[in-house]
DNA sequence: GCCGTTTTCGGCCCGACTGTTTTCAGTCG
């Protein structure tokens, strides 16, 4: 995707400038612009055509020109020139924890090291310790860092991250010196993937808390350990960071530690204009002598936002995507909550590839407080998932009719119907017309060109029987990337035809993602948040789908399955 | 390189930890 490509180039330019020792603020401008571009919901080509590039946060005249240049010529001359000065492999060195621009430059200038393998060789041979300002300890750290990089400390999906985070929190929360505890960072902001897990604790005895932390049984190695913070690595290679602060600083620290960085920077700038200073210990009068006892605020996040003249901002919104401006005008959306969800519209039973009966799935949904649930087993063409033939459909239908007489939840007769390479369904119109809910889905032909996939999805929108399109971009974390779609055209078709688009809550899918979902909302598309459960325990994944919707600024009115069954049946197609 | 209710120049968030020093630079979040 173009936005991502340009963002990556800007990030590379920033890294090259760092190594060159260029103006740090210029470097920050490139990094800020890169972050900003990744949050732009529209395609940059459209924004450029309408001359709105410079309206993007962090993009000025100069960077707008560079984006235009890339759109027109598929290259940026300035970037090409820079690359000649700094060999490509040198940028890879920056991915090693502990190696920054200064060290990378030193290694290249003195020893002509420009890739990770060469660096490893020199470090093993003890050839780094003769460099100025670098001794054995740093050599060891570099080797340890390289080991981490080689292990591929990738980002992990939210589900995996929460398993580790919950474990640490449950083991630490009852320790005698722990007063308050919370996870923070991108996990608290519910980003779809996270790199490490951040935990914040308030305590009067930080050293004892940090001792307990480093002794948690999952800890395999200690990366660092200071008076108030520490970082460890688990056996699974997950990094967990801990910060300990006094109890009256908990709110300020939670704010700081939750980020995002861009949100914090802007918040601190706002504070500066009011003659205040925010750090992780609280809010202070900027001119007074540093005295942490004299914080004006800091116990809770809420009082800090209030002091700056705005309401509380939910962590999911803290990406510097306009949330601070909206908060100052008191125009933040009332975000959807898990409690707003009235039913789940995508799940499987024993009829296809699920692991529980329809009755079990329905009872589990009832326990979650739902009013309705759609059992959308696979259709006949998806043989690997035991897709239902007409005889099986009949049996399933009769079973549902029978169950509906005795249960306090309404079971909807549904299907997840295959969309073939041209966007046609494998069930006939007549068969489709008998379902309460039809979910259309792509499970093959992911590599079609953008135009073809877009046409296929639009055709599905125009099918009068298809109520919802499941996992609209096909991405599966760690397996395959999303296919290319012309989102502008696709979302317009969905909005025009009243087709709901799914936010699939499976943590390895989360599809639509936050940025696309916000684009869909802005295009007038109605969303269905579903779990795609194959197991009763997976119904709880709904919180991840809701999180995506919250990150997309959605209220309950943007989401179809917050409606009562009666309302849902009224607003859906047909 | 961006940005503006201290506005077109002169600012740009703030602090902890480590390793190397003898007061600090580099890195990280």
Q: How do the helices and strands line up, and which of them pair or pack?
A:
Layout: H1 2-20, H2 24-38, H3 44-49, H4 61-73, H5 77-85, H6 88-93, H7 101-111, H8 116-124, H9 136-150, E1 156-157, H10 158-172, E2 180-184, H11 185-188, E3 193-194, E4 197-202, H12 206-214, E5 219-225, E6 229-234, E7 239-245, H13 250-258, H14 261-273, E8 276-279, E9 282-285, H15 301-307, H16 323-328, E10 343-344, H17 358-367, E11 372-378, H18 390-406, E12 410-418, H19 429-432, E13 437-441, H20 450-462, E14 468-469, H21 487-497, E15 500-504, H22 514-522, E16 527-530, H23 542-551, H24 565-571
Parallel strand pairs: 4-7, 10-11, 11-12, 12-13, 13-14, 14-15, 15-16
Antiparallel strand pairs: 1-3, 2-4, 5-6, 6-7, 8-9
Helix pairs in contact: 1-2, 1-7, 8-9, 13-15, 20-21, 22-23
The protein binds one DNA strand of 29 nucleotides through helix 2, helix 4, helix 7, helix 9 and helix 14.
Organism: Candidatus Ghiorseimicrobium undicola
Pfam families: DNA_pol_B_thumb (PF14791), HHH_5 (PF14520), HHH_8 (PF14716), PHP (PF02811)
GO biological process, one term: DNA repair
């Amino acid at each position: 995707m173009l936005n991502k490509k340009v963002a990556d180039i800007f990030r590379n330019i920033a890294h090259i400038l760092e190594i060159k020792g260029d103006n740090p603020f210029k470097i920050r401008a490139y990094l800020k612009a890169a972050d900003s571009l990744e949050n732009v919901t529209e395609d940059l080509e459209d924004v450029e055509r309408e001359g709105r590039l410079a309206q993007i946060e962090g993009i000025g005249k100069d960077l707008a020109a560079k984006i235009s240049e890339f759109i027109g010529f598929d290259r940026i001359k300035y970037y090409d020139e820079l690359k000649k000065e700094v060999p490509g492999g040198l940028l890879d060195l920056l991915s090693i924890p502990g190696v920054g621009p200064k060290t990378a430059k030193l290694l290249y200038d003195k020893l002509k090291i420009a890739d990770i393998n060469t660096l490893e060789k020199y470090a093993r041979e003890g050839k780094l310790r003769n460099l100025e300002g670098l001794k054995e300890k740093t050599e060891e750290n570099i080797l340890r860092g390289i080991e981490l990089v080689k292990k591929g400390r990738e980002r992990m999906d939210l589900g995996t991250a929460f398993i580790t985070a919950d474990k640490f929190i449950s083991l630490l929360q009852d320790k005698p010196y722990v007063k308050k505890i919370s996870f923070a960072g991108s996990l608290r902001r519910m980003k779809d993937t996270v790199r490490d897990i951040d935990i914040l604790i308030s305590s009067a005895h930080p050293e004892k808390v940090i001792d307990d932390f480093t002794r948690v049984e999952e800890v395999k190695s200690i990366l660092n350990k200071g008076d108030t913070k520490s970082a460890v690595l688990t056996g699974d290679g997950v990094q967990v960071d801990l910060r300990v602060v006094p109890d009256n600083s908990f709110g300020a620290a939670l704010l700081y530690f939750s980020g995002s960085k861009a949100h914090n920077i802007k918040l601190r700038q706002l504070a500066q204009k009011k003659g205040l200073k925010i750090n992780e210990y609280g809010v202070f009068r900027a001119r007074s002598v540093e005295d942490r006892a004299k914080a004006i605020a800091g116990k809770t996040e809420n009082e800090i936002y209030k002091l700056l003249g705005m309401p509380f901002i939910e962590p999911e919104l803290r990406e510097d995507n306009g949330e601070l401006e909206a908060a100052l005008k008191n125009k933040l959306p009332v975000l959807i909550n898990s409690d707003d969800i009235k039913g789940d519209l995508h799940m499987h039973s024993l009829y296809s590839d699920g692991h529980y009966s329809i009755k079990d799935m329905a009872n589990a949904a009832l326990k979650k407080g739902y009013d309705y649930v759609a059992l959308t087993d696979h259709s006949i063409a998806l043989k690997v998932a035991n897709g239902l033939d007409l005889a099986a459909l009949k049996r399933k239908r009769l079973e549902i009719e029978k169950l509906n007489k005795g249960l306090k939840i309404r079971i909807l007769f549904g299907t997840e119907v295959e969309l073939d390479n041209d966007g046609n369904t494998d069930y006939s119109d007549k068969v489709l017309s008998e379902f309460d809910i039809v979910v259309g889905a792509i499970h093959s032909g992911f590599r079609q060109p953008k135009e073809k996939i877009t046409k296929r999805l639009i055709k599905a929108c125009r099918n009068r029987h298809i109520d919802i399109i499941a996992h609209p971009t096909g991405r599966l974390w760690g397996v395959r990337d999303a296919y290319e779609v012309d989102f502008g055209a696709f979302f317009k078709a969905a909005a025009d035809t009243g087709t709901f688009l799914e936010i699939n809550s499976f943590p390895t899918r989360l599809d639509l993602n936050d940025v696309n979902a916000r684009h869909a909302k802005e295009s007038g598309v109605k969303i269905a948040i579903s779990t795609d459960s194959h197991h009763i325990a997976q119904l709880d994944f709904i919180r991840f789908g809701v999180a995506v919707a919250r990150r997309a600024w959605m209220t309950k009115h943007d989401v179809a399955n917050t409606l009562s069954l009666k309302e849902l049946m009224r607003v859906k197609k047909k």
